[in-house]
Design brief:
The chain is an alpha/beta fold and 315 residues long. The protein has 10 helices and 12 strands. Strand 11, helix 9 and strand 12 form a beta-alpha-beta unit.
Length: 315
Amino acid sequence: MSSEPIDVVYTWVDDQWPGYRDLLAQYAADGHDRNPNRTRDNLDLLKFSLRSLERYVPWVRRVFLVTARPQTPSWLNRDAVHLVHHDELMATAMLPTFNSFAIVSHLHRISGLSNRFVYVEDDCLFGSTVHPVDFFDVSGRPRVFLKWRHSIGPERRGDGRLSPWNRALALSNHLLNRRYGNKRRRTVNHAPLSVDGEAWRRMIGIWPEAFDQTASRFRATGNVAPEHLYSHFLLEEETGIEVDAATSLRHAAYHALNNVIVYQRLNLARLRVQRPRFCCMNDNYGGDPNPRSVSIVRGFLNRMFPQPSRFESCR
């Protein structure tokens, strides 16, 4: 593993891009489709994630950014990041897509991507030094980070009262149960996803109909959650290794971006002290972010990562 290249792949979208909201409204059917928590970029989290990547994960070979054409972050240094648009990976009939499940399931098609790579969502930050062995063990097996709690049962895969995310988890568990036997499966933790390209393709080859169904414009009944399905597929096939629960809890933190000022101050203070290797800063602002809360979080990000990275054109 010491000589094998490892790339990093980000996905990103900005709903302030001219015409994007109109395009979204043209296809959206309900509130889940229009949820701004999944498309907002009011904190430039990708920029700060790349700053943290440069500081704490400097050994990566290439960085790829996957987004909808023609979107490009205004600050991006195109010489340092390989920009990939959806139409380079997905069939025209699938586009435009607003479905992260569909997008993630096509990442292995990126031209020039290393066989082993790390998928990082744009709201994930690195808080301390990370080594290749934190993603893949010495024999190259991806490490799987799980939470303590179990995910939703397969019997609810068609329950319209659930969010599309939970229905996708339920269907993924259903597929896993049919192949490997019934068991309760824990939820995947908020950490970057370590991907072995060969195993990823093998997974898609086992459930091709499910992945065809997942290639929809929005998250919907019949979709799988690729991150969840893949993680448990690795464990069942014994081609991945589970990180013990205590280590997973210590290294992977979650912070909800919301309008509760006290929560923001206290939890951000905890993150400053804890310095987890991975931290997901998930948008929970809803339709109306509190400017004071946004300011508190932006101040935290600027204090933690004040120096522009090589990934920024204005460095």
